[in-house]
Please model this.
Amino acid sequence: MMTSSTFRGPSDLHLHSERSDGTQPPAEVMRAAYEHGIRTAALTDHDTTEGWVEAGAAATSLGMTFLPGMEMSARYGGRSVHVLAYLPDPDDAPLRGELSRIRSSRLDRAHTMAERIARDYDLTWQDILAHTREGATVGRPHIADALVAKGHVHDRGEAFAGILNPRGDYYVALYAPDPVTAVRLVAGAGGVPIVAHPAGRAGVLPGRVLQGMLDAGLAGFELGHRENRADGVRMLRGLVAERDLIVTGSSDYHGAGKPNLPGEHTTTDAMVQRIIDRGTGTAPVYA
Model:
C-alpha cells in the first residue's frame, strides 16, 4: 500500500461500527461513508480501537483516507460526556488501562440491567448476546436490540426512552472518568481530544469544567451534529474564536441503530489538517 501525506474531503470524523454500538462491521461502515460521498473518515467506536485495522484497509481500498479514532466515555455529575479521540497511541499504558476499566464496567452494568429487566420481561442474557458481535463490549444498544427482537419495544429509540431510560428502575450507571481526566489521557497518548455533540439536550458543560478540559489539552468541539442546539453552539463558537480551537462536523453514524447518515455534517479540510498536524500517537492511513 502506497502512502502519502495528503487527503481529500468531504470528511466525516464520527462513525460507529458493530465493535461498539453500530450495526455494521468496520469495512461496511467505510463503504457506507464512501457511498455517501465521504473521502476521509474516522472510526470512533466507544472505548475501543479494535476496528482500526479492518476499517483502515477497507477505506484505503476505496481510495479514502482513514483517521484512527475512538469515542471515550466520561461523566460529569449525572451526565455522560463523550470525548472523541483522534490519532491516539492505542498502546499507551494509562489510556489502555482506563479503557479496559470502562469496558469492564459496561459489561458488569449490562449483566445487572439484564437481570433487572428479566424480572418483568421475557429477556435472557443469551438473547442479548445474540445481538452482540464477538469481541464487542455489551452495552445498552445491544439490550435495546434484544428488546426489539422480543417484541417488547418497536425500536432502539423506544427502548432508550422507556425501559433503558436513566431515570427508570432498570438503569445502572456506567463507570467513566471525569471529562478533565479523559482529555488528559487522550492528549497524553498523543491524541487530539474533541468534545462530541457538546451542545446537546443536557446543555453545554459549566465554564469551569470546560476550562479544566482546555488546560488538560482539549483541542476543540464537534459543533456540526444533529443533536446540538443553536444557543449552545453560539456560545461555544465564541470560545472557539477566543482560543483558536478546532471545530468538527460529523454524522455520528451507527448504521441501522440511528437515522444519522454519513456526511450529514462534515469537517473542513483545514480542520482535518489541524487534527493530523496535532496528533502524534498514531498516523492517518492514506490510500
Residues 200 and 228 are 4 Å apart (CA to CA). Strands lie at 11-15, 40-43, 65-76, 79-86, 192-195, 220-224, 246-249. The mean pLDDT is 95. The first strand starts at residue 11 and ends at 15.
